[in-house]
Design goal:
6 strands, 6-stranded antiparallel beta sheet, 39% strand, alpha+beta, single chain
Length: 129
């Protein structure tokens, strides 16, 4: 019987390289908006939406952002909440000169769904204080 240890290491390495490639596929506007805590203007499901993006992460080899919707088609939402947006569904992405405060009451950087899959996020609450 043949030892497949080397094959497993090669597969693990390919997975790591794949993760690096995933990061490179995210639009730079996403990173800029999260880093500078500026809103994004995007088209999502044929609607123009202003988002306050808090985190970029992967799930099932797809990229997502969790963001607070600031307005949808020119109207504020009924309530502020953190929504999940699949990156491939976002188009016409523009960074606005509209800063936002991280909403740590809605966004929890320690949520299990972000563990080990976070690519980029707003500063943790402890750093923001």
């Amino acid at each position: 019987m043949q030892d497949n240890g080397a094959a497993h290491k090669a597969i693990d390495r390919i997975g790591q390289i794949g993760q690096i490639c995933v990061i490179m596929q995210a639009p730079t506007e996403i990173f800029e908006a999260i880093a500078l805590q500026k809103c994004l203007l995007v088209t999502y499901n044929k609607m123009v939406v202003t988002l306050a993006p808090h985190i970029l992460y992967t799930r099932h080899d797809e990229m997502f952002i969790d963001a607070v919707t600031v307005d949808r088609d020119g109207r504020p939402p009924r309530e502020l909440k953190l929504g999940t947006f699949k990156l491939v569904g976002l188009s016409d992405i523009k960074v606005l000169d509209e800063p936002f405060e991280a909403m740590h009451g809605l966004y929890d950087q320690n949520d299990d769904k972000y563990r080990g899959v976070t690519l980029f996020a707003v500063a943790p609450e402890s750093a923001a204080a």
